[in-house]
Amino acid sequence: MANRTSTPDSLGKFIRSHRQNLGWSLDNAAAASGLDATYWSKVERSTIKKPDAGNLAQMAAVLDVPLADLYGLAGYTAPQGLPTFRGYLRSKYHLPPEAITQLEGYFGFLRSQYGIPEGEAVFPPKPRQPRKPGPKAQPRPTGGPWDDPAVAGDRKAA
Fold first, then answer.
1. Potential cystine with 16: which of 9, 44, 93, 147 (Cβ 3.0-4.6 Å)?
2. Cα–Cα distances in angstroms (integers) from residue 153 to residues 14, 142, 144, 146, 150, in the given order
3. Residue 84 in contact with residue 66, Cβ under 8 Å?
4. What is the C-alpha end-to-end distance of the chain, expressed in Å?
5. What single string gives the DSSP state of each residue in 19-40?
6. Which residues contact 3 (CB under 8 A, 6 or more apart)?
7. How far is CA 94 from CA 87, 91, 123, in A?
8. Which element (helix H / strand E) includes 5?
9. From first to last of its 158 residues, what are the pLDDT tens digits of the chain?
10. Are the beta carbons of 126 and 120 closer than 8 angstroms?
11. Cα–chain center distance at 17
12. CATH superfamily name and code, 9-95
């Protein structure tokens, strides 16, 4: 069974933001989810301190967001694990959506640069394999034209 704790204000902001990004009114969201528009409004305004887990599941489906995100923001422990990176950052650090999008872009960059597969954690980094020792640098031979000051002087003049 899910573990309940207090509802952070960020849950309401998260839900409102996603609903508005879809271009939906409260009535549109209510009709799509089967929940009352006043319930949506109360969750968005954080007047409902402990939203029902089943209602959060309906909201997540309508908003097309991972249920784990809403559970994490509401203080529930998701049965399948932790919230997504986006949901975690919003609940833990209260970052705006733009900052989270920038971080996701940066992690995408790291994945492409270092060959980290999607779905595998970027941090903490895996220990690097030690490099194989290459050939040691050979000392430069002496006595060649590069050591003749007259030739070196000609190069400087050029």
1. 44
2. 71, 17, 15, 10, 5
3. yes
4. 81
5. HHHTT--HHHHHHHHTS-HHHH
6. 75, 76, 77
7. 10, 6, 20
8. none
9. 444 444 446 899 999 999 999 999 999 999 999 999 999 999 999 899 789 988 998 999 899 998 888 888 888 875 555 667 777 777 777 778 888 889 888 888 888 888 888 777 766 655 556 656 656 656 666 666 656 666 555 545 54
10. no
11. 17
12. lambda repressor-like DNA-binding domains (1.10.260.40)
Gap between the Cα atoms of 76 and 70, Å rounded = 8
- Distance separating alpha carbons of residues 157 and 153, to the nearest angstrom: 6
User: Is the preceding peptide bond at 133 cis, omega within 30 degrees of 0?
Assistant: no
Task: Please state, in angstroms and rounded to a whole number, the distance separating the CA atoms of residues 14 and 80.
Answer: 21
CA distance 44 to 58: 14
